[in-house]
């Protein structure tokens, strides 16, 4: 019988809240309990439980500063769902419990990495880039809904970064652009996180050209028309 792992809950509170762009708000969480927290690979995620609530929501870990017992979590500002409503009223001192970290992703040395995502994937992609070796060739493609959502990524000499500004259905242009990339299942690794319908389309497209789940990591972080989406197909 398969049992889901049990993760410890870390008690934290909000230390700072900063608007990174008009579309993204950074919440810094901290507390002595995080002295026991260990992030062992880039691109990991945690579940956040707000104000001692019983329902958690998944978020990528942004910056992690173990010496200060602080973690940054970036929220896309939209006002919907449990996390969106909490963000509107969150203040310094608000209580947040953290469970995790979790992730099944790690870069395969020697393979060219392709990182594809939308605004919700910026934190994870930034963390992955920070953990890469500078000599590794990496292609990053990000879709944003407005030019104001574009933000700098970690400085990385090996990365080729492209931003797509789209006023169409979320994920459509990202999927179209991704299909034009020159990728090879033998020499490439693909990581995708975006709207769920586009994520499923890209999983199928890369699967058709020979990618299996050892080199293809896809997750639908959210879905149009659903307030609280749970991705049953996620590779994480």
From TrEMBL:
SUPFAM superfamilies: Riboflavin synthase domain-like. InterPro entries: FAD-bd_FR_type, FNR_nucleotide-bd, Riboflavin_synthase-like_b-brl, SIP_FAD-bd, SIP_fam, SIP_rossman_dom. One of its GO terms (molecular function) is oxidoreductase activity. Residues 7-108 form the FAD-binding FR-type domain. Belongs to the SIP oxidoreductase family. This is Siderophore-interacting protein. It comes from Sphingomonas ginsenosidivorax.
């Amino acid at each position: 019988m398969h049992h889901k792992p049990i993760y410890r809950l870390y008690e934290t509170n909000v230390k700072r809240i900063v608007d990174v762009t008009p579309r993204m708000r950074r919440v810094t969480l901290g507390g002595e309990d995080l002295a026991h927290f260990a992030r062992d690979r880039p691109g990991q995620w945690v579940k956040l439980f707000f104000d001692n609530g019983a329902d958690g929501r998944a978020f990528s870990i942004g910056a992690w500063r173990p010496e200060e017992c602080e973690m940054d979590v970036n929220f896309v500002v939209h006002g919907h769902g449990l996390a969106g409503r909490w963000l509107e009223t969150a203040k310094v001192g608000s209580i947040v419990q953290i469970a995790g970290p979790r992730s099944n992703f790690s870069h395969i040395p020697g393979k060219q990495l392709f990182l594809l995502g939308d605004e919700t994937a910026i934190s994870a992609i930034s963390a992955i880039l920070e953990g890469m070796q500078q000599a590794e060739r990496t292609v990053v493609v990000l879709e944003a809904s407005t030019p104001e959502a574009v933000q700098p990524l970690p400085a990385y000499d090996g990365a080729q970064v492209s931003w797509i500004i789209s006023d169409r259905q979320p994920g459509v242009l990202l999927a179209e652009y991704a299909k034009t990339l020159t990728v090879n299942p033998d020499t490439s690794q693909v990581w995708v996180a975006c709207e769920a319908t586009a994520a499923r389309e890209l999983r199928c497209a890369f699967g058709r050209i020979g990618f299996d789940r050892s080199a293809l990591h896809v997750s639908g972080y959210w879905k149009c028309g659903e307030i609280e989406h749970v991705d049953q197909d996620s590779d994480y």
